[in-house]
Amino acid sequence: AFFWLVSLLLASLIWFISVHLSDRDDAKQQYRLLIFGAAISVLLQELFRFAYFKLLKKADEGLATISEDGRSPISLRQMAYVSGLSFGIISGVFSVINILADSIGPGIVGIHGDSPYYFITSAFLTMALVLLHTFWGVIFFDACERRRYWCLVLVVATHLLTSGLTFLNPRYEATLIPIFI
């Protein structure tokens, strides 16, 4: 989770600087910067997932050298699962916090023509992202271990696609169905 938080911090800094260097009155440019920020965030998350894999690989070698039988007490699959789950949980916590912050505001969701399904679809989206991060972690670690670079590209591409699909909101059927698939 710490690695995910650091990647989010770096992505936020890059986005913050780019917004302040741009024309704040140009709505299209600000929207493009938002998309840029999401893409940078995904790429940094995957870069930090790789850094975490390398760190765990080193730790695994160290554990194997000090164990009695020469094998690590924790398997790579277990580490991949826990890593992916921690990335997913911290991502989900941030999603839920943002949604709860939206719920504090004045008015009622849907009163001005917005979708009344905002909270339920946000919950399903958060659930999907937690599961996807878990799957991505397992696939990513396995791909790094077996040197299957096409799987790494698949993880990064589906992560970018998933993040990109969220820009279709509030057309939730166009977002949720492909993400769950």
Give a summary of the structure in a few sentences.
The chain is an all-alpha fold.
How would you describe the shape? Answer: elongated
Any idea how many domains?
Answer: 1
Mean pLDDT, rounded to whole units? 88
H/E element sequence:
HHHHHH
In percent, how much strand structure appears in the residues? under 5%
The separation of the N and C termini measures: 25 Å
Question: Which radius of gyration do the C-alpha atoms yield?
Answer: 19 Å
Q: Given the structure, what is the number of helices?
A: 6
> Structural class from helices and strands?
mainly alpha
Instruction: Report the count of strand segments.
Output: 0
Share of helical residues:
over 70%
Major sheet summary line: none
Low-confidence parts lasting 5 or more residues at pLDDT below 50? none
Transmembrane segments: 31-48, 79-97, 117-141, 148-168
Keywords: Membrane, Notch signaling pathway, Signal, Transmembrane, Transmembrane helix
Membrane topology: Multi-pass membrane protein
Protein name: Gamma-secretase subunit APH-1
